[in-house]
Amino acid sequence: MLLGYEEIKKLLCKDTATDVRDRLIISPILELEEQLKPGCASIDLRLGHHFRVAKRTRVSHLNRQEDDYQAKLQRYNEEYFVQLGDFFVLHPRQFVMGETLEWVHLPRNLAGDVAGRSSWARDGLIIATATGVHPNYSGIITLELTNIGEIPLYLYPGLSICQLFLLEVRSAGEPLPRLSTFVGATEPQNASASGVEKRIVDGFRNRLGESH
Prior knowledge:
Low-confidence stretches: none
Number of domains: 1
Shape: globular
CATH topology: Deoxyuridine 5'-Triphosphate Nucleotidohydrolase, Chain A
Helix content: 10-25%
C-alpha cells in the first residue's frame, strides 16, 4: 500500500514507537508544509552539499569485478562540497552523483521509492530511478544526476530535488534484512562487486576458457 499525506504526516509527527528503529525519520525537514503537501502521496527531499563528479582521466575503463576498482574511482572522480546559498553547475550531458540533504531512516515495515520532480525534468535534469530504499535503511540517499538538456543547470543545495514515495511492507514480521552496502552513508558512494558476483562471473569465464 502506498502511503498518503495523512499517513506520512502521522508517522513523522505523532509516531509513539518506543524503539527509534521502528520510527520513520527524515531530518532535517526545513518546511514540512512545503515538502509534504495535502493530497500528495510523497514527501519532497532537498539537494545536499556533496557532489561526486566524473572527470576525464587516463583510466581506460571501470570494471567492478577488478580488485583495483576503488583505486580507479579515486582517479576518476572529484568531490565537491557546495555551501548553502552557493550552486553547482551541471553541464549538458554531464553525469554527477549528488545526495539528499535529509538523513532518512525507514522502519522495518516501510520501503521507499525515489523519483525526480517533473519541474526539474522539464529543464532537462534526469534523476536515475535506481534508488529503491529497503526497510531498516539509515543514511542519506545518493542521487544520480544527468543533464540531458542543451544548457547548463544551476543546482542549489537546499532546493527540492526529488520525491520519496513510501510503501507498506506486509512481511514486516520477518527477520531484519542484511544491511545494504550503503547503510549509514553520509555522502555519495560507489560499490565494488560483491564476492558472490565475482565468483559467478569467474565461473562463467572458466567455462568459456577465458582469462580474468
